[in-house]
Amino acid sequence: MFRAIVSSLLAAGIGLAGTSAQAAPSYDLLVGSYTAGSSEGIYRYRFDSATGQISARPVQVVPAENPSWLAINKKQTRLFVANENGPGQKDAVGKVSSYGIGPDNTITLISQQPTEGDEPTHVSLSTDGDFVFVSNYAVHPEGNASLAVLAVDDNGQLGKVEQQFKHNASHVDPERQASSHVHSVVSSPNRSHYVYASDLGADRIFIYQFTPSNAHYPLNPAAPSSVILPPGSGPRHLLFSKSGKQAYLVLEMSAQVAVFDYRAGNLIRQTIAGPGRRQRPGTGGRGSCASFG
């Protein structure tokens, strides 16, 4: 079982059985971090659901460079991590890492690969678990922003980048949208074989058809190939409802949430909620929003 909490950047819970049928379950929480300061990487804490307490000290510290996003497979046996490295950092190469999760929840590194892009901010798994989708955000306009696709074998070993997709920027905001900034990539619900890339710099959600049987070219642009969003809104994270019939999108720059109906791979916009005030250049992100779950 999982529990998710907000702690620093991301925390994903790995379930542990309680001591008896009546006992409240406990969980391990994995917390990613930026490592430019004193942080060492990934921290594993114990969470007691009966008391609501998190252990004062981590039960495991996994050294890693800028593990800013964590994703766990459905079987809870593998952990995939976006290492948000880029120019000017201690490690200038953006990477994605895979880890094994042992029976006692010990985290062990399996493999690591370059993402062929800068500052990867998000990683997700395909519905079949055979591919990872990485969002190379690229902070600087001259950086390499892209959606990268890598294969994963049965042992959790990552292959090299199989595909890379780049998008055109909207240029509405001269500071934040001078180039593409792929912020997240998520798969459609109910195994309907679509993948959605939210690009903050393009003001679009790009849609790809997923063909798992095509090992070297699993993604291809769908028709239509994108959803156009309000100029300067800055799409960030897309979330599907539990039923799979709706989707919700955080618009970071306008501090809004867009609501869609989901039908056969298409996102049909119903409404946009929120103040709708686009950030002025140089405001330092005032009035922005990030994610939900």
Please, could you describe this protein's structure?
The protein contains no helices and 22 strands. The chain has 293 residues and is mainly beta. Strands 1, 2, 3, 4, 5 and 6 form a six-stranded antiparallel β-sheet that branches. Strands 7-8-9-10 form a four-stranded antiparallel β-sheet, with no helix packed on it. Strand 13 (146-152) and strand 14 form a beta hairpin. The chain is globular, with a radius of gyration of 19 Å. Mean pLDDT is 89; it is low at 1-11, 17-21 and 282-286.
Beta strand count: 22
In terms of DSSP E residues, the strand content is over 45%
CATH architecture: 7 Propeller
Oligomer: single chain
N to C succession of SSEs: EEEEEEEEEEEEEEEEEEEEEE
Shape by Cα distribution:
globular
Q: Poorly predicted ranges (pLDDT <50, ≥5 residues)?
A: 1-11, 17-21, 282-286
Number of domains: 1
For this structure, the CATH topology is Methylamine Dehydrogenase, Chain H
Percent helix range: under 10%
Q: What value does the Rg take, in angstroms?
A: 19 Å
> How many distinct helices?
0
SS-based class: mainly beta
The CATH superfamily is identified as YVTN repeat-like/Quinoprotein amine dehydrogenase
Largest sheet: 6 strands, antiparallel
Q: What is the end-to-end distance?
A: 16 Å
CATH class: Mainly Beta
